């Protein structure tokens, strides 16, 4: 596929883009800083400028296109670019840049007739991650039907982006899939961070005791690219096991007293349900962190 990918130089994108490249896709990375990866062309773009977005999607991928057919239609647009959390810039800038960039990207893709649009939403939409104090979920596990009541400017922008995407899909008809991505973990972060999570599981409360390996996020995008005809959908994205060395019952008893269970859960299953992605996309990421720390298989 010919894919325009925004934010490919960020924490998630720098792992997702090589994965997609290795699946045989041709990719143009739109970002403020270059990724510099072999086989992927970088284009410096301000996504809050709709003219720049439109031009970026309607020009040559790279100079090799001069010997080909010229500008060709896009098969997909994947939009990951964003201010990645609160506390990096003023809150109003976080909201404005994220909402405007997403509008510009989806609007251009829809008007150009791109048949597949994938965009990054967030775990924060459920109102737990960046809440003031502690907020408990309405039920467990948290699935895509759980209320989204954002408590911060970043989560607000993501909920707004979902409404934007749903509205564009309703009036135009392409497949638009939103990914409610949990805490992204790069391979080197297992050794750096997970021993502390094992020692103090409370450190993972705001992430609903979940995570997504950056490499498996590439798998999720690929499954979205290969699955057609769903219209507008949102999907939780996480690895299948909790990010702490506790089972389901122990986590629920310690951190979620009185919270009802909506569905039966396995003994070591993520509280950030990925059942919908499994069912509709065939998303089946592996368990990661115990092996990365050399801890062997989890107890049965």
From TrEMBL:
InterPro entries: Epimerase_deHydtase, NAD(P)-bd_dom_sf. Residues 3-192 form the NAD-dependent epimerase/dehydratase domain. It comes from the Bacteria. This is Nucleoside-diphosphate-sugar epimerase. The lineage of its organism: Bacteria, Pseudomonadati, Pseudomonadota, Alphaproteobacteria, Rhodobacterales.
